[in-house]
Amino acid sequence: MNIKQKTPSQWLWIVVIAVLTILLAVGLLWNNKSKTAESAAQGEQEHAHQESEKAESAHDENGEEHEAEESLSLTAEQMQQHGVKLEQVALGEVNQVQTFPAKLVVNTDRQAHVSPSFAGRVESVYVELGQQVKRGQALANLLVPDLVDQQANLQIAQTNLELAKQDYERERSLWSQGISAKQDYQRAYNAYRQAQIQVQAARSRLSAFGAASGSSGRYTLTAPISGVISNKDIVIGENVQLADQLFTIDQLDQLWLEFVLPTMANINVQPNQQIRFKSLQTGNIFNAQVQSLTTEADAQTGRLQIRAKVLSNATELRPNLMVNVELQAGSKSSVIRVRSEAIQQVDGKDVVFVAQANQNKGFDFKAVPVQIGQRTQDGQWVEITQGLSAGQSYVATGSFLLKSELEKGEAEHGH
Fold first, then answer.
1. Where are the alpha helices (H) located in 234-304, listed in sequence order?
2. Is the whole model's pTM more than 0.85, yes or no?
3. How many CB atoms lie within 10 A of CB 54?
4. Is 119:240 a contact under the CB 8 Å cutoff?
5. How far apart are the C-alpha atoms of 411 and 415, rounded to whole Å?
6. With bands split at pLDDT 50, 70 and 90, how would you rate the model's confidence at 301?
7. 36-51 b/e (C-beta count within 10 Å ≥ 16 → b)
8. DSSP state of 5
9. pLDDT tens for each residue of 189-245
10. CA distances, 183 to each of 180, 193, 196 (Å)
11. For 148-177, how does the pLDDT look when each residue is reduced to its tens digit (9 = 90+)?
């Protein structure tokens, strides 16, 4: 079989055709990859754009919802129903009040120290620390050796009295019959009178010590006044002496207020002047009346010691309680002020709810942060140094309701 050999020109054409074929295939493949990458990139871009639109839409919805929750509105009927009243921010006077630390102390004019009239041994104790007692109530019982001796002396004196009485009556009978001499009768009479005096003296001595004649050496300590046992230094079995202070009884229905006033404070305080003080625990305000103040300042500290009588017997007022005294230092005129009850705490800031009429014949309320200054002496007004201007309408009464609604809305939004 004969095979026809290809010429060089034919081989050249074959190679050219093969190269062109390969180049065409590579071009087609590259074009397809490029379109696929562009399509994928475009799809990712469209997906990201859609996600962005969704996020913005959700943000707008949340923003609208949050704004709706922050918006507080009430109709006129709702305001009347809940006692919400409006006033206008106005100018007025506000007292300059300075505060000074003070302390409540026991009124020593209404205090009693209980000490024994005899040295003895404690047999029993009937009361506890902090217990309320009445005047004449038994506090403790003592066994007193001296009391035993004095009661025995009383019994001896009573026996001598009986003997002297019998001798006297016998001598009187004999003298009346002319049998005995008058001097014998007189001697018996004098002895009888002497025995009477000795018995009376022994009884008076026991009575002065507060001991009964038939107590068998027992002595009972009693409360000299009604009050509270504020100090108790006695236990069963110990020996006590005359100088020992076993109980302290305080009447807590009237306390003293003591504080020091720096001379540089330039505040005038006079006896019988009424002052105010605030409890640090509850914030409640109480009144006191100045009783005394030192006639001159302390040479080293330059301070005046002041004592005032507390004019309240509230149960929260107790000895050693720390309080703040509020003293008026002057007054400011033409300052912006609002009602004290209009101030509320929201997120740790002082706010006032400002009101603005809406189209529904009601009002929209907004919590406006404010900076507060001095308060009036009666506590009804407070100075606003920043945040409000004269003429604005604000919630003077019932602002706590708006605060509750605002916090309720924030809590619901948080969930």
1. none
2. no
3. 10
4. yes
5. 7
6. low
7. eeeeeeeeeeeeeeee
8. P
9. 888 888 888 888 777 776 766 666 556 678 888 999 999 999 999 999 999 988 899
10. 8, 15, 20
11. 667 777 777 778 888 888 888 888 888 888
CA dist 127 and 129 (Å) reads 7
Token couple for 119: 């040295």
Bridge partners, 288 (sequence order): 275, 310
By C-alpha distance, which of 13, 220, 15, 46 is closest to 120? 220
User: Locate tokens 């913005």: which residue?
Assistant: 56
Buried b (16+ CB within 10 A) or exposed e, 66-105: eeebeebebeeeebeeeebebeebeeeebbbbbebebebe
Look at residues 290, 291, 292, 284 and name the one whose alpha carbon lies nearest to residue 321.
Answer: 284
Taking alpha carbons only, the member of 228, 222, 250 closest to residue 142 is: 222
Distance, C-alpha 390 to centroid of its chain:
36
Other Cβ atoms less than 10 A from the Cβ of 221: the count is 24
Question: For residues 309 and 9, what is the distance between their CA atoms, to the nearest angstrom?
Answer: 133
- DSSP for 284-333 reads -EEEEEEEEE-SS--TTT-EEEEEEEE----TT--TT-EEEEEEEEEEEE
β-pairing, 303-310 vs 90-106, is unpaired
CB count in 10 Å sphere of residue 353: 27
Q: With contact defined as beta carbons under 8 Å apart, do 210 and 224 qualify? A: no
Phi, psi for residue 141 in degrees, rounded to 5: -125, 135
